[in-house]
């Protein structure tokens, strides 16, 4: 926590922008904990609300929109192909693509807002909006709102719990490690199932062929 705080004081808004933009592009960087630190440091600094908190909100929102915009343009450009790539590891890739487009068609901007707060889904939402044909104006308005709310949430958490910031970050880190472990187990199980589903069927066919020979 102290290392992050020192980085925030020294590099400030540049760090917020770079990390948030990279995270939105899909790089696994701790954008949310960094915003929590920024909020806590802002409240611990005289005049920090105007000098750091509000600028951090603006910078984080801009980085979110830029990162999401790249994914949105990719969705508009490559359509179903990029959704097929993103849904490749789904249990049902075809229904993932069709269901994603249907979700955007039904809920539109609401889906973008909700997806911001669901790890993993947030990266898929922007290209999904592009592939579903959402207009650039509608996407920009809804994504800007969602990005501002997302950024404000973590900055506010840091401001409110500035005294307990170390404990809060430890909790976020522990939760992240637990989620990562669960995700790793889930992926391992998924790949094992896919392997068995594909190769197990071949083994059964070979066994039946030997039995009838």
Automatic annotation (TrEMBL):
Sequence intervals crossing the membrane: 49-73, 139-161, 173-193
InterPro entries assigned: DedA_domain, VTT_dom
Subcellular location: Cell membrane
Keywords for this protein: Cell membrane, Membrane, Transmembrane, Transmembrane helix
Membrane topology, as annotated: Multi-pass membrane protein
Cellular component, GO, one term: plasma membrane
Main location: membrane
Transmembrane helix among keywords: yes
Pfam family, one: VTT_dom
Key word Hydrolase present: no
Residues covered by the VTT domain: 41-159
Protein name: Membrane protein DedA with SNARE-associated domain
């Amino acid at each position: 926590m102290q290392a992050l705080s020192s980085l925030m004081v020294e590099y400030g808004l540049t760090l917020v922008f770079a990390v948030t933009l990279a995270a939105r592009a899909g790089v696994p960087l701790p954008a949310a904990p960094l915003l929590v630190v920024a909020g806590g440091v802002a409240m611990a600094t005289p005049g920090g609300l105007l000098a750091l908190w509000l600028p951090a909100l603006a910078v984080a929102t801009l980085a979110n929109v830029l990162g999401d915009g790249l994914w949105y343009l990719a969705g508009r450009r490559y359509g179903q192909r990029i959704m097929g790539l993103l849904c490749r590891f789904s249990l049902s890739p075809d229904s993932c693509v069709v269901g994603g487009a249907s979700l955007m068609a039904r809920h539109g901007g609401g889906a973008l807002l909700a997806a911001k707060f669901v790890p993993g889904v947030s990266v898929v939402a922007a290209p999904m909006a592009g592939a579903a044909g959402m207009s650039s104006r509608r996407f920009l308005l809804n994504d800007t709102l969602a990005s501002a709310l997302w950024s404000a949430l973590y900055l506010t958490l840091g401001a409110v719990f500035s005294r307990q910031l170390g404990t809060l970050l430890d909790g976020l880190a522990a939760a992240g490690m637990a989620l990562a472990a669960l995700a790793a187990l889930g992926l391992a199980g998924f790949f094992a199932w896919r392997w068995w589903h594909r190769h197990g069927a071949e083994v059964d066919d070979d066994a039946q062929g030997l039995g009838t020979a």
